[in-house]
C-alpha cells in the first residue's frame, strides 16, 4: 500500500506512512465505537477477520478460545475493528478511507458496508466456481475445470473470476450507493 500510494500521488514515503497509519487508526476507532450498536455484542460473525490476520500456527492454537470470555471483550472488539480497518485501507487505499471520514459514524457505516460487500463478492465467486462453463463443472473454490478442460471457456472463467475478485467489492459499493447499502 505504501508504495502503491507513493507512486500514485506526490509526496514522501514518511508522509504516506503517516497517512496510512492515520487512516487505519481513524477507521479502527470509528468501527470499535460503533461495533456493539451494530452487532448487539455478538462478534461471532466477525471473528473470521481476526483469525484471517493471525499467523497460521497461532490461529490453530487459539481455535475456539477467542470467544466465550477467555479474551476480554474490549480487546476482541479492538482486534475486529483493527482487522477490518486494515483490510479496507490496504484493499481500497488510503484515499478511500479519507473520502469516507466525514464523521466517525459515516466511516463506521462504510466499513460495515465494505464487510457486507465483501461477503457478497465471496458468494458470487463461489457461484462462479460452481457454475457449468461449457459443460464442465468446478468443485470447491479451485481454478481448474474438472477433466482438465482448457480453451475459451476456461479463459473466460478465469477472466470473470479475476474481475469479480479484483474489483467486486468496490463495484458492489458503487452500485449500491456506498455507505447507504440497504439491509
Structure write-up:
The structure is a single chain. With 183 residues, this protein is mostly helical. The chain is 68% helix and 0% strand. The protein is built from eight helices and no strands. It is globular.
Give a brief outline of the structure.
The protein contains eight helices and no strands.
How would a crystallographer describe the biggest sheet?
none
**Percent helix:** 55-70%
Mean pLDDT, rounded to whole units? 79
Structural class estimated from helices and strands: mainly alpha
Beta-strand content estimate: under 5%
The H/E string reads: HHHHHHHH
Counting DSSP E segments of at least 2 residues, the number of strands comes to: 0
- Spatial gap, N to C terminus: 31 Å
Shape: globular
Alpha carbon gyration radius? 19 Å
- Enumerate how many helices there are, as a single number: 8
Poorly predicted sequence stretches spanning 5 or more consecutive residues: 143-152, 179-183
Task: Give me the secondary-structure topology.
Elements: H1 2-8, H2 13-39, H3 47-53, H4 56-62, H5 73-92, H6 94-99, H7 104-130, H8 152-175
Helix pairs in contact: 1-2, 2-5, 2-7, 3-5, 7-8
Descriptive key words:
single chain; disordered C terminus; 183 residues; mainly alpha
Amino acid at each position: 500500500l505504501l508504495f502503491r500510494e507513493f507512486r500514485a500521488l506526490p509526496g514522501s514515503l514518511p508522509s504516506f506512512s503517516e497517512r496510512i497509519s492515520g487512516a487505519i487508526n481513524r477507521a479502527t476507532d470509528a468501527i470499535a465505537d460503533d461495533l456493539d450498536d451494530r452487532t448487539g455484542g455478538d462478534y461471532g460473525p466477525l471473528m473470521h477477520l481476526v483469525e484471517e490476520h493471525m499467523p497460521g500456527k497461532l490461529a490453530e492454537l487459539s481455535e475456539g478460545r477467542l470467544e466465550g470470555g477467555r479474551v476480554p471483550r474490549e480487546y476482541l472488539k479492538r482486534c475486529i475493528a483493527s482487522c477490518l480497518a486494515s483490510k479496507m485501507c490496504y484493499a481500497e487505499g488510503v484515499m478511500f478511507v479519507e473520502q469516507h471520514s466525514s464523521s466517525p459514524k459515516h466511516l463506521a457505516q462504510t466499513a460495515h458496508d465494505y464487510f457486507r460487500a465483501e461477503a457478497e463478492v465471496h458468494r458470487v465467486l463461489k457461484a462462479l466456481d460452481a457454475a457449468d462453463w461449457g459443460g464442465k463443472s468446478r468443485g470447491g473454490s479451485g481454478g481448474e475445470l474438472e477433466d482438465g478442460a482448457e480453451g475459451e471457456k476456461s479463459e473466460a472463467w478465469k477472466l470473470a473470476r479475476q474481475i469479480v475478485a479484483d474489483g467486486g467489492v468496490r463495484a458492489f459499493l458503487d452500485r449500491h450507493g456506498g455507505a447507504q447499502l440497504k439491509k
